[in-house]
Amino acid sequence: MSITDLLRAFATVFPAELPDKTMIATVVLVARFRRPLWVWCGAVAAFTIHVTVAVAAGSAISLLPDAVVGGVVAAMFATGSIVLFRSARSGSEALDSDEPEAETTPRAAVLGSFALVALAEWGDLTQLATAGLAARSDDPIAVWFGALAALASVAAIAATFGRQIVARVPIHRINYIASAVFAALALWTLIELA
Length: 194
Hints:
α2 (21-33) packs antiparallel against α3 (36-57) and α3 (36-57) packs parallel to α6. Helices cover 84% and strands 0% of the residues. It has 194 residues and is mainly alpha-helical. The radius of gyration is 17 Å and the shape is globular. It is built from 9 helices and no strands. The protein has one domain (3-193).
């Protein structure tokens, strides 16, 4: 296995994913499910599929027209913004009621995290970068390990950070902030297409 290709993939994907929507989504998921380890497991499972698809597809993903990729990504950001906004409204209404919060199961945390990350990461910059790295590498397995390690590391940071935020900030506020960020990213993506 090529350590150079592994490190190149890690060094490319880690900083690209660090300020990305998935970090925010992971914080929101930890706040919602209150099970950081299980949220991380669900996110890593989704990342595993994305990295596998990216490496397998190689340069094919990068051959798609920029307008198509950008339009799909903008639509996904917009959808994420709407879902988070609705969740925030539901969360603030729930806070006004005196009903106790339901306990979340590990299975629900894994499946919910997997579903959100799998949808949010499709066609993402890091998936495209991983495909590009795999297409240029003689060792796509090393690229796979490096990209997955980077994504798992960012998810671990977010899960740990999310746990601290939950203690201080109500979930509906986090959802409103995340919704605004997703809306801004959708707008930014559309502006870049113009």
